[in-house]
Write a structure and sequence with these properties.
This protein is of the alpha+beta class. Helix content is about 20%, strand content about 35%. It contains six helices and 17 strands.
Length: about 350
């Protein structure tokens, strides 16, 4: 592999510099540029050293400052305003060699929030009209969130994604929520994957909504009748109506910080039997992410995550997240008298 995690790279298309944060496969790596992570093919990047060397020196050396001249410059007026392009679903195909051919093994789904609003969201995957996975979490402004992996053969099971978004900080002019349904059409997906290969691009992106919709005007009520509440704005059709009512009547109890988190599925979900391995992994990673963020916000010194041994998939996914979390000073998975090799101890900065 030409690149390793931590290498500095140059994005050839925009000449922006970034850092390798993960190795996806032999042909693709995950890079971070200006706080945003996304996958690229190896021929789309290069080491930045030659580019730096060949750049002309456009600015003369700054003169030495005389004492008293060190006046701080207000840089806020030079900051670039962030955009408001909406919410997107990204699909990253993962390939494997099948003889002499390269075929798609599975698809990784990420949620991209390119809006200035932090949101709570509820996400479901339905296969053959049966609930396969459910996630409840938050996504910050201008950030992304890993949702789930879907085995490529699942395209034959009529997959359907259900989304419901709520503003973390309600706005008086914006709707209470947005609902969206996204269905995968196998024939269309095959065509898009082939186009992706031809263009040598990494991901397929689908817009879920452009902007959080404005609140519908409240209809005038008769003098004798009490005023009605404004209806919830919905986009698309979905199966979240009953879930939405439960959310409004029974708000989620806030989590309590812990110094030890057990991620065994039976400790997280009562009705876990019958769930697919991908669904179980998503629930475990979801719980880990929430408790880690809670530990950081409460300035905990350390956190022990019990992931078990098994095949090591959950442990490896957790370690990848920890490598990309700036607040993590160190983490170790070594033998412990209580947990054996089935736990990782995290130390925060």
């Amino acid at each position: 592999m030409k690149y390793q995690i931590g290498d500095s790279i140059l994005l050839l298309s925009s000449k922006e510099e970034g850092t390798v944060v993960d190795v996806v496969n032999d042909n693709m790596v995950m890079i971070e540029v200006k706080g945003t992570s996304f996958p690229v093919y190896l021929d789309q990047i290069d080491f930045p050293y030659f580019h730096r060397f060949t750049q002309q020196k456009l600015v003369k050396d700054k003169p030495k400052l005389i004492p008293g001249d060190e006046i701080k410059v207000d840089r806020s007026k030079y900051e670039v305003f962030k955009t408001d392009k909406g919410m997107f679903l990204s699909v990253l195909p993962v390939y494997q060699m099948d003889g002499l051919d390269e075929t798609v093994k599975l698809m990784k789904f990420h949620l991209f929030n390119d809006t200035p609003h932090g949101m709570r969201f509820y996400f479901q995957i339905w296969l053959n009209n049966q609930l396969d996975l459910e996630i409840k979490n938050e996504i910050q402004p201008y950030n992304n969130f890993y949702l789930a992996d879907l085995i490529f053969e699942s395209l034959n099971d009529n997959p359907r994604f259900e989304f419901s978004f709520f503003l973390k900080e309600p706005q008086p002019k914006l709707a209470t929520s947005v609902q969206k349904t996204w269905k995968i059409k196998p024939k269309q997906m095959f065509v898009q994957l082939e186009q992706l290969r031809v263009k040598e691009e990494a991901t397929i992106t689908y817009p879920l909504f452009e902007k959080f919709p404005e609140k519908e005007p409240e209809p005038p009520a008769p003098a004798e009748a009490p005023k009605k509440k404004a209806p919830i704005t919905t986009l698309g059709s979905g199966n979240f109506a009953s879930l939405l009512s439960k959310i409004q009547l029974q708000p989620e109890t806030s989590l309590t910080p812990k110094h030890e988190v057990d991620l065994h599925i039976e400790a997280l979900e009562k009705n876990w039997k019958g769930l697919s391995n991908i669904a179980i992994l998503a629930i475990q990673l979801n719980a880990f992410q929430r408790y880690m963020e809670l530990a950081i916000s409460h300035h905990q010194h350390n956190l022990i995550v019990i992931h078990g041994i098994g095949k090591g998939k959950l442990r490896d996914e957790i370690h990848q997240v920890l490598k990309q979390t700036p607040e993590v000073a160190s983490f170790v998975n070594q033998y412990h008298a209580k947990y054996g090799y089935g736990a990782t101890e995290i130390t925060f900065r």
